[in-house]
Design a protein that fits this description.
The complex is a heteropentamer, with one copy of chain A, two copies of chain B and two copies of chain D. By secondary structure, chain A is of the alpha/beta class. In chain A, 43% of the residues lie in helices and 17% in strands. Chain A contains 16 helices and 13 strands. In chain A, the strands form four sheets. A five-stranded mixed β-sheet of chain A has the order 8-7-9-6-10, with helices on both faces. Chain A has a four-stranded mixed β-sheet with strand order 2-4-11-5, sandwiched between helices. In chain A, helix 6 crosses helix 15. The N and C termini of chain A lie far apart (41 Å). The relative contact order of chain A is 0.19. In chain B, the strands form two sheets. Chain B has a six-stranded mixed β-sheet with strand order 6-7-8-3-9-10, with helices on both faces. A four-stranded antiparallel β-sheet of chain B has the order 2-1-4-5, covered by helices on one side. The longest helix of chain B has 18 residues. Chain D is an all-alpha fold. Helices cover 81% and strands 1% of the residues of chain D. In chain D, helix 4 crosses helix 11 and helix 8 runs antiparallel to helix 9. The longest helix of chain D has 33 residues. Chain D starts with 5 loop residues before the first strand and ends in a 10-residue tail after the last helix. Classes of the chains: A alpha/beta, B alpha/beta, D mainly alpha. The complex binds adenosine-5'-triphosphate (ATP) (2 copies) and magnesium ion (2 copies). One adenosine-5'-triphosphate sits at the interface of chains C and B. Chains B, C: InterPro entries: AAA+_ATPase, ABC_transporter-like_ATP-bd, ABC_transporter-like_CS, ABC_transporter_ATP-bind, P-loop_NTPase. Chains B, C: GO terms for molecular function: ATP binding; ATP hydrolysis activity. Chains B, C: This is NitT/TauT family transport system ATP-binding protein. Chains B, C: It holds the Pfam family ABC_tran.
Amino acid sequence: AQRSSTTPPGVLNVGQISNSLAFFPLFVAEQKGYFAEEGVKLGERPRLGTGAKVAAALKSGSIDLGAGVMTDALNLARIDDKGRLVANLVDRYYVDVVVGASFAGASPSDPLDQRIRALRGKKIGITGPGSGTEALVTYLFAKAGMNSATDSELVNLGSTAAAALGALKGGRVDALAFFQPIAQQATAAGIGVRFISPAAGDVPGLERTSHGVVFTTQRIIDKKPKEVAAFQNALGRAQRFIHQADTGEIIRLLGLYLKGIDPKALTELPALMRSEIPESIGFSRSSFDTAIGFHRVTGLVKHLPSYEQIVPPALRTNAT
Amino acid sequence: MSDTVTSETVIEVSGLGKQFVKDAVGIVALRDFDLTIAQGSFVTVLGRSGCGKSTMLNLLAGLTTPTSGTVSYRGRPVAGPRTEVGYLTQSDTLMPWRSVHKNVELPLEIAGVPAQRRTEHAAELIGKVGLEGFERHYPRELSGGMRRRVSLARMLAGDPETLLMDEPFGALDAQLRGELQAELLRLWADGGQTVVFVTHDIEEALLLGDRVVVLGPVGRIVLDRPIDLPRPRDADELRIDPEFVALHRELTAALREGAR
Amino acid sequence: MSDTVTSETVIEVSGLGKQFVKDAVGIVALRDFDLTIAQGSFVTVLGRSGCGKSTMLNLLAGLTTPTSGTVSYRGRPVAGPRTEVGYLTQSDTLMPWRSVHKNVELPLEIAGVPAQRRTEHAAELIGKVGLEGFERHYPRELSGGMRRRVSLARMLAGDPETLLMDEPFGALDAQLRGELQAELLRLWADGGQTVVFVTHDIEEALLLGDRVVVLGPVGRIVLDRPIDLPRPRDADELRIDPEFVALHRELTAALREGAR
Amino acid sequence: MTAIQTVRLDRSWWGRHGGTATVWSLRALLVVALLVVWELTAERWFDITFTSKPSDIWTRLVQWHQDGTLWSNTWITVQEVVYGFLLGAAAGALTGFVLASARAFYQVLDPFIMALYAIPKVALAPLFIVWFGIGMSMKVLLAAATVFFLVFLNVAAGVREVDRGLIDAVRLMGGGRRDILVKVVVPSSMTGLLTGLKVAIPYALIGAVIGELVASNRGLGYLINDAAAQFDTAGVFATLVVLSVIAALLNLVVGLLDRRASRWKPLGEER
Amino acid sequence: MTAIQTVRLDRSWWGRHGGTATVWSLRALLVVALLVVWELTAERWFDITFTSKPSDIWTRLVQWHQDGTLWSNTWITVQEVVYGFLLGAAAGALTGFVLASARAFYQVLDPFIMALYAIPKVALAPLFIVWFGIGMSMKVLLAAATVFFLVFLNVAAGVREVDRGLIDAVRLMGGGRRDILVKVVVPSSMTGLLTGLKVAIPYALIGAVIGELVASNRGLGYLINDAAAQFDTAGVFATLVVLSVIAALLNLVVGLLDRRASRWKPLGEER
Ligand SMILES: Nc1ncnc2c1ncn2[C@@H]1O[C@H](COP(=O)(O)OP(=O)(O)OP(=O)(O)O)[C@@H](O)[C@H]1O
Ligand SMILES: Nc1ncnc2c1ncn2[C@@H]1O[C@H](COP(=O)(O)OP(=O)(O)OP(=O)(O)O)[C@@H](O)[C@H]1O
Ligand SMILES: [Mg+2]
Ligand SMILES: [Mg+2]
C-alpha cells in the first residue's frame, strides 16, 4: 500500500502536528499570499496530532509534506530511507519546563543544575511517551547525572494545553514540559512560571538545534519538484518577513493564528518568534548535529540518519 | 338498585362507563352500568363475546379507571387493586421466568409469608388443581389448560374474600372442569366468599350461580335473575330437570336478545 | 390402522412419539401414537388437559419434529409446515403490530395475492366472524373472544384443504359458537376439507364430528368411533335424542377412563 | 353481530397537546435553571478557567456565528455524522437481522465481533489514515464503525427475543425465511433497533469528532482541539453545546420513528 | 390426575456437549485461518509498517512477557476496566430501573441525558484531570461514565417493554412499587440489561484506555501510546490483542450471566 501523492499538479497538501507556534511561518506565508505568488496552492491542511499519523498520511498519499518536529522526520527516515527534510522552521528547542506558582524546590533564577535537581522525585507532565517533551526531561536529567525514568514520574497529558494546565493547576503534577507558548499561557492564567527554557539559552549545548521542520519523501520531491521549490521559497519569504515586519503586525497575525489565546500571553511572543525562527529555511550542520546528538542521548530514535542523507543539498547552509 | 347500602353489599357499581380512545374517537365498552353484589353471593355473568364482561371485571378489580360512574367496595370507592379481591383474568399472566411452584408462591411472597409455609401452601394448591409433578416446570412447558390451572392456584393462594373469575374453566376438559367446579363450590360454601364468575357456558352458569346476569352490548343488563335450583346440583341430573331446561331456554333467549 | 395407504388417506401417523427435555430427563408428551385420517373426514378429538392434544397437532402441522415415528401427508413425510394445512393454534399468534384487517390479510400477502383482492377477501372473512367495524383495531384492543375469531378468519384466509383446530370456539358465547360451527360445517360440506378439531366440549364433539377420538395420557387412544348421527344436527333437538345421550355417556366414560 | 359503538371525542387543544406542552415547558425550565445556577456559581464553586460560564460560552458562540466559523464547521461535522450514522445503522441493522437469524453462525462469530468492537478506534488512527486518507470519508467510516456495532448488537438481541409462536404462524402460512424476516422479525425487534439507534447517536458524533481530532482542519472536533490547545475553555464548551444540540435533534428524529413504530403498543397511561 | 411421565435420558458426552465443542473448534479454526492469512499476505497486500504481522506481534508479546511490561500494565488496565464496568453498570441499571418506571419524569430528563451522553469524553479530559486527578480513579470514572449511559439506555428500553398484564397481576396481589420492580420489571427487562452489559464491555475498556492516553504512565493505553510514538506497530497490535482478550473474557462472563438468566426461555433449537 505505497501510494504516492493524490493531489493534482500545482497543489500540495501539508499535514501538521498541531497549531503550535513552530508552524507560524506557514500561516504567515498563507496570509501574505506568498504561496500563491510562488505558484503553489495549499490543499488540505490537516492537524494530525502525532508524528506516526503524519507518517501514515504521507505514506497513504493524503499529504505531500509533513510539518512536525525533528523527531518525526528522523522516525520517518528510519522506516523509509527516502525521508527528506524540506524546511527548517524553528532552530531552537521550543519546549519549556513550567512549574506551579508555589513550586518550592528552586527559583527560575537559580543555576540550571540546581533547577534540574529540584525536579527530582516530582511528577512532571509531558505530552506523551516518545515525544520531544519527554526527551527534554530525559536530556536535562541526564545532564545532571540523574535518570528521568527513576528519579521522576513522567505523566502523559496529551498535547492540548488545557489538559496540561489543568493538571498543573489542580496540583496533579508539579511541573510541565510542554510546547511553547505554555509558559506564557501559564503566566497569563496565573498557574505557573517558566522554569527552564532551552530556547532562551538556559541549557548550554542546546541553544541552537533544528527542531520545527517540514519533511517529506524523495518520491514526492521527484514527483513535484516545482511545487516543493515554490513552497520552500514562500516559506523563506515568510521567515524573512517575521524578522523584518513591525511588532504590531506580528502580534496581529499571531492573534489570528492563535485564536482564543489570552491577550496577555501574546505580548511576549514576537520577540520569542524572532529569536527562534531562522531567517532562512536551511539546516546548518551544527544545528543538525545538535539535534542528532540530542536524539542519541535521549534514545528517542534508533538508527539516526546522517546530514548528507536527509538534508537535500540545496538546504545545506554553512552558517555556524 | 338498592337505595341504601346495607352491610351485606360487597360491590356496588353505579353509572359505570368505560371508553377507550382510538384514533380520536371513543370506543364505548361499557355504558351506564349498575350492579350490586351481596356478600356471599355467587353471581355468574353471561354475555356475547365483546359485550364488555372483561372490561367490567377490570373495573371491579380496580385495574382500570372508569370514564364515568363509580365502583365501591364495602362502601368505599375503589381506586386501585385491593388485596381482598382475587381476579383470575381472561388472559394468561403467569410470570414466564418462574416455575409453576414459584408462580403459585408469588402472592404469598408479596404478603410476606415465611418460606416454609409458602412452600407447603403452594404444594397443596398445586395438588388441588391436579398438577403435582409439574412444580418445577416453566409456564411455556405446560399445556394451555395446565397454565390456566396454575393461574387459578395462584389466585387462590392469595386467599381472597371476593373472587372475580373470567372464564376460568373454558380451556379444561369436562371431567376436570367438573372437579374444579366442585372444588370452587366447596370453597365458597365453607368460606363465605363472594364470587363473580364470567362464563360462556350456560350450563355452567346455572350449575354454579345463585344469580345470573346476562349482558347485552356495552354492558346493558338483559336479564338479572336468581337461580334457586336446589344444591348440590349434579350436572347429569340437572340436564333432565324441567326447571333447568326452562332456565336454559330463558338464558339462551336472553343472550339472543342481547345480540340485537 | 389401515395397512395400505389408500388415495383417501390424508394424514397418516405411525409410532409417533414426542419427548421434551427438561433438566436432563425426558418428559413424554406423546408415545406410540397411531392415527389415520381420511380425506374429507371431520375428526373431533377429546382428551384431558395435558394429555398431548396440542403436541399431536403441532406434529401433524409439521411445526415440531417427532422424537420417534413419522407423520405423512398424502403419503409423503411431513418435514415442515405445508401451505395446504391450516392450523388454528391453541394460543394466540396474531401479530400485535398489525390491525385486524392486516392480520387477516397476512396469509394472502405471503401467497402473493394482489392488494385489491386481498382487501376484499379479508373484509369478507372479517364479516363472517362478526367483526365488521373492528378492521382497524389492533389485537390488544379486542376482547379475548374477538381475538380468537380474528385468528380463525386468518386461518380461513389461507384457504387450506386440511384444517387443524385447537379449541377454536372455547372462548365464545353459545350463540356465536353456534353460528361459527354452522359456518364451519357449511365450509366443510361445500369444499370437502378435512378437519381435525380438538375440543373440550363433548356436545360440540358430537355436534360436529363424523368420527371422535378420545385420548388418554400421553396420547393413548381410549376410544375411536364414528358418529353417525344424521346431519344437519341441531343442538337443541340433539340434547333429547337418546342416541346422542348414549354417545355422551360413552364419551364421558371414556374420558374418565382416560384419566386413570 | 357485535356492532361497534363509538362516540365523538370533543377534546380541547389542552386535552390533546397538554401532555406534550407540559413536558416541553418543564424541559425549558430545567435548561434555564441549570444555566442560571451555573452562571451564578461558576466563579465561586468551580474553577472558571476549566469550566467557563454560560455568558462566556454565549459570547464565543455569537463571535463564531459572526465570523462564520460556527456554521462552516458545524455543517461539516453534521454531514459526517449523518452519513456515518446512516451507513453504520443500515449496515448494523442488516447484519443484525441476518446474522441473528442464523443462530449457530452468529454464535461462532460472536467473540470475533466483540474483539473487533473492543478495539479503541483511536489506536487504529494511523491505519485508518493509510486506508481511508484524511478526508471526510475517513471520519464517516470512523463514525459508521462505532454506530455499526451498537446497532448490530441491539438488533441481534431484539431478534433473539422474537416470539417463536409468531414465526411459526408465518411458517404455517407457507412463508419462507424472507417472509419471516420481513413480517415478523423486523417489526418484532423494532425496540431493539430503536434502542440501538438511540444509543448510537452520540457515538456517530463522537466517532466523527474523534476522526476530526485525528486529522482535520475543519469540523467541530477541530474546533475543540484548537480551543483546547489555546486553553480557550469557553471555546471548548461552546463546541460541546453545538454537539449536544446536534445529538438532541437526532434523538428527536429517532423519537419520532419510535412513536410511529410503537403506535400499536398500549399507552400505559394509567399506573 | 395427569401424572407426569418421564424417561431417563442416556445422552453421551457428545450429545450433551457436542454443540459447545463444535462451536469452540470452529472458533479456533477461524482464529488460526485468520492468523495464517494475515501472516502470509502481510507483506504483499498490506503496508507492514502500519499493519504489522502475527509473528512480529507474537515476538513482541513474548518480549513484553519476559520483561514484565505486559503483566504490570495489563493488571492496571484490568483493574480500571473491572471497577469502571461494575460501577457504571450498577449505576446505569439502578438509574434505568428507577427512572424508566417514573415515565413522565424520564420523558422530561431524556434530552438532558442524551446531551450529556453525546459529549465526547476526550474533550472533557482537562476537567476530569482537574476534578479527579491523574490516578486510577480518574480512569475508572471515565470508563464508568461511558458504561453508565449504555447500560442505562438499554435497561430503560427494556423496562418500557414490560408486559402490562404482569404488572397488573402483581398489583392484584397487593404488591407495591417495590414488588413490581423486583418481581416483574427486573426479571422481565433482563434482556435489556444483558444487552446493555454486553454493549458496554468494550466501552469500559475504551474508556480506561482513553483515560490512560490522557493522563498516565502505566496501563495498556500508555503502552499503545508509547508504541505508536516509536512507530512500533507490532507493539500497538500486541496491546490491541491483549485488549481484545480482556474484552472476550468479560464477554464470556456476561454470556454466562445471560445463560443463567435465560434458563426459562425456549431453546429455539428447531427452525
Ligand atoms: N384497549 C382497548 N382499546 C379499544 N377497545 C377496547 C380495548 N379493550 C377492549 N376494547 C373493546 O371493548 C369491548 C369489550 O371488550 P371486553 O374485553 O370487555 O369483552 P368481553 O365481554 O370480555 O368479550 P369476550 O367474551 O370475547 O372476552 C370490545 O368491543 C373491545 O373491542
Ligand atoms: N416445551 C415443553 N417442555 C416440556 N414439556 C412440555 C412442553 N410442551 C408440552 N409439554 C408437556 O406435554 C404434555 C402435553 O401437552 P399438550 O400441550 O399437548 O397438552 P394438551 O392435550 O393440548 O392439553 P390442553 O387441553 O390443556 O391444552 C404436558 O404434560 C406438558 O407439560
Ligand atoms: Mg373477556
Ligand atoms: Mg392444548
